[in-house]
Amino acid sequence: MKVGVFLPSFLFAENIQDGAESLRAFARRAEELGFDSLWITDHIVTARRFYSTSWLDAITTLSHVAAITERVQLGTSILILPLRQPAVLAKEIATLHHLSGERFIFGVGTGWYGPEFEACGVHRSERGSRTDEVLACTSSLLRNDDVTYSGRYYQLDGVTVEPHPRRPPLVWVGGGRQLPHVSSPEEARMNPRVLDRIVGSDGWIARPTCPPELISVDAAEIRALRSRLGKSSHPFTMAHENFTWIEETGTEEQIVGEQQRRFSRIVSDERPWDYISAVYLTGSIEQIQKSIQARVDAGISYLMLHTLSFDLHQLELLSKYVLEPFGSAGSNATAGDGGA
């Protein structure tokens, strides 16, 4: 399994002054330790419903980090496509991919936060169809000259956006089931349109709130549809995003108490701790490793972890307890090598 980490792109009050340098130090150290990739969360407005913090802009921050790294892949998990204009997005991605040495992984999804859509002039009910159109337009613009497209929301008439990459970025699609909760903004199911979008891409990103037993169900549906469409032999990555905090010492009560404190700085109290601990990687190191192994057994070949902090010591602990026993540290293989 390959292992990546999320950039600490959240905005903590104490990091406002030195946040840029802390971010760069985090990125450099992650690359030194052999993590395969650096990822970033995308929220244009502050999504107070499930997060206690806000985040830096995804594409701008990845461009910043691209300039001070050399090997690590750079990914979005996920970029909210209905909020973007295809030609502008294609230009941003083409530029990032070009300047980074073609290291970008285009992780995409529909998003879920209602006020975010309205703030960007989009209705939440349109998000699925807009996602498909933005993805189709952007993918075509990254590959072709004189692109013509006629959709419900977007029209292109002989449009060219450059540079065209030698290898367009891999597209990974987020979505699928999640553990049900009354506060969840979406149904706990695999939407057929999302399934089609996933199967038409280079990879799938299982939700952070999708536990191993539901990952297995989603993975089986993805494999079955890929087989029916004759795509089983094509490279495809099954990835999973999650949050964790590692404590090496302390009683169970002390470890959980510290994890609760750390999670509360990122995740809101909309859902209780028993839900958080059921879907995220919490508890002792042994429990976290068992939870990761359960996800591997469910079919995950690529894991991306949020550290909840700028603290470089957490990177060291992730390297010791996750990357070393589970990952392929120092691998130069492309992200698309993971199988399904």
Q: How many domains, in number, for the residues?
A: 1
Give the name of the CATH superfamily.
Luciferase-like domain
Query: Helix content range of the residues, please?
Result: 25-40%
CATH fold title: TIM Barrel
CATH class: Alpha Beta
Radius of gyration: 19 Å
**Which descriptor suits the 3D outline?**
globular
Query: What's the N-to-C terminus distance?
Result: 12 Å
Number of strands: 11
Following the backbone from N to C, one meets helices and strands in this order, namely: EHEHEEHEHHEEEHEHEHHHEH
What amount of the residues lies in strands? 15-25%
Q: Which spans of ≥5 residues are poorly predicted at pLDDT below 50?
A: 329-340
Side by side, the strands of the main sheet go 1-2-3-5-8-9-10-11
CATH architecture verdict = Alpha-Beta Barrel
Question: The biggest beta sheet, please?
Answer: 8 strands, parallel, barrel
Task: Provide a count of the helices.
Answer: 11
- Averaged pLDDT: 92
Helix/strand structural class: alpha/beta
Provide a compact summary of the structure.
This protein has 340 residues and is α/β, with parallel strands linked by helices.
